[in-house]
Amino acid sequence: MIEKIISWSTHNRFIVWVGILLIVIGGIYSVMTTPVDAIPDLSENQVIVYTEWMGRNPQIMEDQITYPLVSNLQGIPDIKAIRASSMFGMSFIFVIFDDDAEIYWARTRVLERLNYAQRYLPEGVTPTLGPDGTGVGHVFWYTLQGDGYDLGELRAVQDWYVKFALQNVEGVSEVASFGGFQKQYQVSINPNKLVYYKISAMEVANAIKQNNRDVGGSILEMNGMGYMIRGLGYIQDIKDIQDISVGSYNSIPITLKDVANVQMSSDIRLGIVEENGEGEVVGGVVVARYGENPKEVIDRVKERLEDVEQGLPPGVTIKIAYDRSDLIEAAVATLKEAIVEVIIVVSLVVLLFLFHLRSALVAIVTIPLSVLIGFILIKIFGISLNIMSLGGIVLAIGDLVDAGVVMTENAYKSLTNAVLKTDE
Do residues 34 and 88 share a domain? Predict the structure, then answer.
């Protein structure tokens, strides 16, 4: 069989050269378009459903949130398993699909079932889907540095400026904030004053909710012109909250400051984030979207950060804490270095033992062509370029070199023997 292939190739050199050219073009295209990552993605094909109902214990979350959702998510096509976890104020459901299920089709089917299951949940509770990323999608971490700024101010810059700017970058699924303090208005009610003024806690909560919104009016016609009337009711500062009326006592209006203490504070923190043991920091984690090229996503994020830094408050800078592109470039550089070293070693071995340049070229050309064929197959089967796949190519080069040297030497000896017999 091999003899027939060799004989056909020698008689159809043009077709062979065309095939080599196609391999080179296809290999280069595959290298340029195949997603490159450092870590192989071995995570399961899953959709995460997150539900928040703060203040409830895990048992209530299990009975009223997790169980109804899991029961209604059963029966979706191509589901492998459903796992759930209930904790204080939060419920997580992991819907695991078969590996060949398309991820966005799976998210759509889960969302359809959630719309149906909404009626079984308590009022005001809405389940949401997690980001369309994978377990290794955290490709870029950054922190905010600023002398003279506290952690609450830096967290506000992160949540209301940097985060929204990076979420618009192509290929980014989510930007998760970490560290610092999340500012909030806190109302500490005095129960003794509620009893004295005969006001319930629910009335206080409803008063705050109803006094933090704008309302629309009608149209006022004056001098042939129409004026849109609206009521401005959004809370601007602490004084607006303190002046909210929560009831009356002996025909005297009772405001919120009469029954409660209003202050600006931070949300409850369940942990802190430190960087290199130098103290607390504020920052964000960029999660790449499923199927995106992590290297290209990181490059686009870095480019956007250059624009974002121009709008930061004076003295605030962005520091890169983790950049996976360094590891990706190191993995690709290892493959390039291995190929170059193998080509040099093979050339020296063939030249030293055979003293024949054309025989050395046969082995040298075989190596990059075989690697390009490997990249074409990686592209066809949808495998990403990572440490494992690139490492496999490097190891395969060793076997390829052995075969190339042996076959070249045999061909050289056969041709030499044939020449000697002809001379005799």
Answer: no
